[in-house]
Amino acid sequence: MGEFLADYSFNTFALRHFMGGKNHSFTKEQLKQPLLKLKSEDDQQAALEVWVTIQKFMGDVADTDVVEFISRKKPPIKRRMSFRNFGAKITGKKSSKYDLSTDNAAKEAAVNNEVAQQPEVLPPTSGVEKVAFITGYGIYSKPLRDEIYSQLMKQLSDNPSERSRERGWFLLSLCAGCFAPSSLVTKVVRYFISGHAPPEYSLYCEERLRRTCSNGTRSLPPPQLEYNAVKRRRPILVAVTLMDERVVKVEVDSATTIRELRIQLSEKISLLDHFGFAFYITMFDQTISLTSGSAQWEHHIMDAISHVEQTGRDEGLSGKDVQWDLFFRKEVFGPWHDPYKDPVGTTLIYHQLVGGLKYGEYKCQDDAEYAEFSARRFYIEHGSSVSEEGLIEVIQTYVPDKLLKRLGAGYWVNATMDSFKKLYPDGTTVSSQDEKAVLVQQAMDKWAQLFSRFFVIKKMSGPGITLKRSAVAAVNWKELSVLEESDSGRGTKVALLVPLTDVKSVSKRNVFQIRGTESDDEFNVKTTRGPKFTFIMNNADEIQEMLQAFVGRHILEIHHPVQPTEEHGEESAA
């Protein structure tokens, strides 16, 4: 084993692969060419600029030393990834935990998916900027990854400065959390870590590299939160706000994906069915959905935080001054959803409905529905004993402000009282948890389209379909719809509506991919009535998976109808 590992020593690797007679040892000199062979002139120039930045970060050369940066550009990282900006205009209260509209604002934002342009910049100055510069090139350019790790290992070999070595291992840890080198160099790096890393960095660096190899390359450089945690080699704690106002801290690392975070949080709060729950990150008056779009589960939570921090910097803030919040709420129901079986999930959705109804995200058809919702809410929160005085105290928090202003609090107290007496005659003993389940079931039935997941459509064809403007496909447990930007440019209109009971099959195939861009898929939907609809979109895996699961459930229920149980009308598959 010792002889086998010796083949991956950095010294041996440098002798075999370094160009220009360079050895494996530390130096304060400037490179005249990259350590490794790079085909692209852009990569060759970037390698020299990364070398200077590494030296300055480690303190091997002074920041005041003038070294010409020819490119004068940041690594061309896609800032937006596949996130959608969701407008938060429905309440005018930017701090509201319910200000997370998935209505028209979401649909409009989803069809305006532009990638931010990268400005020309001067060489990085602060430590965070240097790290972003180095890791950014490693994320963007696969050929540069081996070069960056080689430069770091060279500067950590026979380095006489304790401070420089400390900064070097800190930087290597950050890189290990963002991108991994080739298979060969990964073995060299691991052997180097095992033989040269200080005790406090040995297992830490190894685990970070292992996780990155497992979960893939990041999309953005480390945010301030990650930078600070890695500097102290402490766990990264992310605070998640639930819809019942609880704040739960979850331990993550640089490689944690959105899917992993959802599973970890669900286990921590005992959520049984976490399908359709999504994370939303808010900053200023913007809300970004972390699960809308293609390849959602592969996004890293640190990339989302890095994105909002960069947005804050664009507004003139430093990374440490950017304030953001992470929320967890129900985005879409599955046809199998049973609110009676998961009390934790039902309670979270109930609180989401309470806030959403108050602030206008969800709307009832008439005053009677508002009164019924208020009556059920009062029963859940206060029990079977109701009085006019008790309703007066809470009605302001139950009913939307517009309705209170139009009809007055007294009207809603009387309407709620009448509805309460009809729903809960004397002797009623129904549990508050079952009443929450009733409201969730009603929301699932009435507001199916508001609980949809959206996918950007590039092109579409089918009988009677002619898209003139940007459009999105919306999928919920009942139907597939296509929402097109209206002719006026305000809001959306329904261009296609297909009940899932009419869907016969769904399929996709890759149509083309331009180097450096996301692949386009042709996504086909065949209906039982004959028409076939074809969509062109990025990475249609998620919409295909959702529709196959949803349509399969509907087919199951056609062949095995569900029957209500005697206990509480719960549906169960035969």
UniProtKB/TrEMBL annotation:
GO terms for molecular function: actin binding. One of its GO terms (cellular component) is cytoskeleton. InterPro entries: Band_41_domain, FERM/acyl-CoA-bd_prot_sf, FERM_2, FERM_central, FERM_domain, MyoVII_FERM_C1, MyTH4_dom, MyTH4_dom_sf. Its main location: cytoplasm. It holds the Pfam family RA_2. Keywords: Actin-binding, Cytoplasm, Repeat. Signal peptide: none annotated. The keyword Electron transport does not apply. Gene3D superfamilies: 1.20.80.10, MyTH4 domain, Phosphatidylinositol 3-kinase Catalytic Subunit, Chain A, domain 1, Pleckstrin-homology domain (PH domain)/Phosphotyrosine-binding domain (PTB). PROSITE patterns: FERM_3, MYTH4. The keyword Hydrolase does not apply. It is found in: Cytoplasm. Residues 26-231 form the MyTH4 domain. SMART domains: B41, MyTH4. Residues 236-561 form the FERM domain. PANTHER family: MYOSIN (PTHR22692:SF33), MYOSIN VII, XV (PTHR22692). Belongs to the TRAFAC class myosin-kinesin ATPase superfamily. Myosin family. This is Unconventional myosin-VIIa-like isoform X2. It comes from Branchiostoma floridae (Florida lancelet). The gene is LOC118425983.
